[in-house]
Task: structure prediction
Amino acid sequence: MVIYGSAKVEWITYSTVFLMVNTCIVCYIVAVGLGHVPAWLPMISDCAVQSPEKYMFRVGVISGATCLLANMVMVYNAFPDFYFRKCTLALAVLAAVGMSICGAVDEKENPAVHDVGALLFFACYDLVVIILSLDASWSEKISPSSIRVKLAFAILAIVVPVIAIILSYYPKHRSYLALCEWFGAFGFAFFTLTFAQDFDTVDLVEEKCPDFERVLSKPNSSQCVYTQSTSQQHSTSDSTF
Result:
């Protein structure tokens, strides 16, 4: 018997939120402290242009994108009753790619590439929030309180981009556009956090048990209950006669 073990999936969710939120906050504090950006209110990408904050931003954002995609893969596997889970997984892949591009290429190095990555992330993950919230509202595995929170985030995912698009036509209100960007990024992170309570302990790698079949795996236990296969049980009972 070879057992690879299990892991609490919610820790991937916590890691995603930690990386996304703390990367933005730490880079903002460093950039403001060194006088690279004004305190009120820079765009998130403005806090990742100069050294040393741009290096922290790259590591944090790319790591956060990896964890974000891993979290969406876990959502895909944990909730097979979600109708649009393949669609949301595909959108999550695009969002993670866009987030990685946005983190790897700052706005001064190549503005076009950076903007494409940012738009890809925000547009795709905005759709992920809306579709997953609808899927969760139809699922029997999601608690009513969690559904209400997800639907609230879905409403924000519709309202905030509309406001941001309107403000983009008024350059003098750039600080309010930056506020929408910060609000959207933090909203995405905390929406992801809502799945932490929905996850149980799951096996990341299935146990390998020759000549045995698993019949029960307790969600909060590292031990699995196994039984002999039906054919072996019949052969054992026949040999006793």
Observations:
- Residues 209-241 form one domain.
- The longest helix spans residues 111-138.
- The CA atoms of residues 8 and 201 lie 5 Å apart.
